[in-house]
Amino acid sequence: MPLSANNTKRKSWIEVPKNSDFPIQNIPFGVFLTKENVVTVGTRIGDSAIDLGALQQLGYFSGIELTDDMFIQDTLNDFISDGKKTWRLVRNRIADIFDENNPKLRDNQEHRKIIIFKIEEVEMQLPVLIGDYTDFYSSKIHASNVGKMIRNEENALLPNWPQMPIAYHGRSSTIIPSGIPVHRPLGQTLPPDATTPVFGASRSVDFELETAFITTDANIMGEMIPISEAEDYIFGMVLLNDWTARDIQKWEYMPLGPLLSKNFATSISPWIVTMDALEPFRVASTKQNPSPLPYLQQKGKHSFDINLEVAIQPEKTEPTIVSKSNFKYMYWTMNQQLTHHTSNGCRINSGDMMGSGAISGPTSDSYGSMLELTWGGEKPLKLNNGSERKYINDNDTVIIKGFCENSQVRIGFGEVSSKLLPPFVRK
Amino acid sequence: MPLSANNTKRKSWIEVPKNSDFPIQNIPFGVFLTKENVVTVGTRIGDSAIDLGALQQLGYFSGIELTDDMFIQDTLNDFISDGKKTWRLVRNRIADIFDENNPKLRDNQEHRKIIIFKIEEVEMQLPVLIGDYTDFYSSKIHASNVGKMIRNEENALLPNWPQMPIAYHGRSSTIIPSGIPVHRPLGQTLPPDATTPVFGASRSVDFELETAFITTDANIMGEMIPISEAEDYIFGMVLLNDWTARDIQKWEYMPLGPLLSKNFATSISPWIVTMDALEPFRVASTKQNPSPLPYLQQKGKHSFDINLEVAIQPEKTEPTIVSKSNFKYMYWTMNQQLTHHTSNGCRINSGDMMGSGAISGPTSDSYGSMLELTWGGEKPLKLNNGSERKYINDNDTVIIKGFCENSQVRIGFGEVSSKLLPPFVRK
């Protein structure tokens, strides 16, 4: 099936600002609330939010087999569940509808009023109901950095790390879209040199710069998805800030892994960028040594050249970029993650989300967490306003952006931005 | 509010066999599929399944404020979300309807045909849509046994264990009701003395004897549930078999905890027994030393005297009981688990499930896993048919039962039973 939506020659009759993440070649999927309090599935071109529910009701998807209420929903789960063929038909159709040479909607002012909103007039929601969320630990540079700090240079990586994509289950109930603030968590920590823990506000709230992919229904219970098929079950990607309280994590994580240090909040960008839109930015993944076991071996290019950056914005000041990384630095690919996750027969449903783990680049200004950027607080970062940060301060906003770019097109994710508030006070 | 449903003098006009887990004083809640392929919320008295949706439609709940379709649903989430007052009004009303002295339904043969089914004619479903599942590790005897095997007697418990209820996030998508078989998982393991892992069928599939509690909506994001209020948010309990592949676990669990070793399947009993029904069996919990931090301190009795047992049934033979334990051996209480889980502001929703972790008793015949019962395979168990087990064999059925009993009443959970099949073969 030709991906006509990817045609870089195409222009939209909707204005797309220069350097926009959302040209007509992107066509991401999300869910938004209109000023009239209607929730709908939508897409975005430039700075316009497009109501796909209204488009469907007005007949613009005729000829594509869709259930009547496919887009008049508060999640994308049903659409994602329909599979790759439907995703492509719909994305190509949207590209056609908004093509500058197609007068059908362009010249119908009445329909345009019902279908198109200014992006600042809608409120972005979580795009999917996330049944299960797994967070991987698949950047070798990140895992090595953490290992060096916890252990030492020689034993930075544990023996299982190079053999399989290590991960833990995260919490679905606290995944929130960009824009929702987060309270500094309370928790148990063990002060330096103490033998008894204390309970109070975390002193080291960190971000982790991550991406995540959203799956469709992949298998029945018991069934493994072969790596050659894994990509068929990945709908698209978002940016993810894996908020982490380092002091809580340090005290709680042995032997069952992180829990309260992570599950107070996980922020994601609201537009799911499809794998089809990312296709022009496919690159080879990091060379793997040792060679993985056969069930994790794959040929071809399976990573993506996605520029990532993190900024910290203290209240009433401009943001300071504190890290620039790239998705291509990942060691384990999304296909390997999904295949490994199903290798024991674990069932994967539509709307499940899998995080990459912090994505650290090779240089010290490309690390994916404050833990690494300040090397455990040893080297505080200087912000543009002159203040210093070891971790995130109350009322700082953390902003993660991501985009792909070549000479012909820029496909971006927008951002995931979220402010850290002081601890919650019960009314 | 008086718990008239707990009146032990009361008898039902529905026959209740001797030693039934389901006298009229129990009134658990579940979801079942009838022969006519209708899914409904229900309860059970003796060996009768009772359709609460039909009861509601026929007006038997009049006077109780319920949404029209409260019980005509395929999960209990909405009912649980309504809170403790509704749970009690409905449970008391059911006790009244089925009281031997109440002729209203008893003498209405037409209604009885619509409302009451033989238990063997219905198919039990998962009782709730489980948004998030957390599994604790709260039996001190179990954690010590595992610690002794992995480390040594002196360092059996890690320093954090006595300070807080340790837990990990589990996977919701593979939680299944009693009766559904489970395939032996494949996975990566490191053979003894090897430096490179292999991929294949697990050789050490184990059960863990657990209970779990189901919550109602407890808090908004950021908010901690004080321990004095925790009990208000616990709807009821089920039995849980936390299937575990020990060889996969050993190789994967560092440093982020168990993932594929657990998430191939988790089996639960289908009837949720309410905390109100368990009230007569409230007992003091294990004395805690050191004293927990203030946010985890509670007065009064917060454990329950629930007899637990595990049997293994090889194909075409009788089951052999391999362990007899009791919920009262737990170290951390459910209230402490829930309060700790929300101490960082983690949001708890209706239908969330929290497992106890393996519940081991003080003697070697009361341990909650094959790992402990056979001490890592060193002392195989002899079954009644003469065969031996280190772990669970293909085509063995693992049956967990649980019940409370005093001189006046027996309140039981029924069972969670599930057969281990050979590895899945893709068609």
TrEMBL record, chains A, B:
Annotated EC: 3.7.1.2
Annotated catalytic residues: H142
A Pfam family of this chain: FAA_hydrolase
Cofactor list: Mg(2+); Ca(2+)
Name listed for the protein in its UniProt record: fumarylacetoacetase
Domain Fumarylacetoacetase N-terminal: 25-127
Binding site for Ca(2+): D135, E208, E210, D242
UniProt family annotation: Belongs to the FAH family.
InterPro entries on file: Fumarylacetoacetase, Fumarylacetoacetase-like_C, Fumarylacetoacetase_C_sf, Fumarylacetoacetase_N, Fumarylacetoacetase_N_sf
Top EC class for this record: hydrolase
Fumarylacetoacetase-like C-terminal domain segment(s): 135-401
Keyword Calcium set for record: yes
Binding site for substrate: Y137, R151, Q249, Y253
Keywords, alphabetical: Calcium, Hydrolase, Magnesium, Metal-binding, Phenylalanine catabolism, Tyrosine catabolism
GO function term, MF aspect, one: fumarylacetoacetase activity
Recorded superkingdom: Bacteria
One GO term of the biological process aspect: L-tyrosine catabolic process
